[in-house]
Fold this protein.
Amino acid sequence: KKEAGTIVAVAAGNPDFSTLVAAVKAAGLVDTLNSAGPFTVFAPTNAAFAKLPAGTVESLLKPENKAKLTAILTYHVVAGKVTAADVVKLKSAETVNGKAVKITTGDRGVMVNDATVTATDIKASNGVIHVIDSVLIP
């Protein structure tokens, strides 16, 4: 069985994450997310990014908005490996951004702030990815 690649490699191998991967590259976070970690990433799909107001993504990918983009992306990353079984026990999680995300479990499943977790425990060599349906804005 092929070993999972890093979080970046796993995301890059999934067409649903092409916007996220482009954003990670634009923010200069590839090396960080390729490092030993481990990290837990709440990964918004392309559809999640598409829900943002028109032009938002294009604007964020511009070099002059790198700091803002970095702040948003690091708000999707938690230090350490937090599996779905761990997530459901949490009320919040401290992100690499320094701000915490709120975690709730209910009828709609697990929510991170206002985003619904749609897939969990996608393994990477340096952590785990959970898929979310909205972009988290700090």
Remarks:
- DSSP finds seven helices and seven strands in the chain.
- The chain has a mean pLDDT of 96.
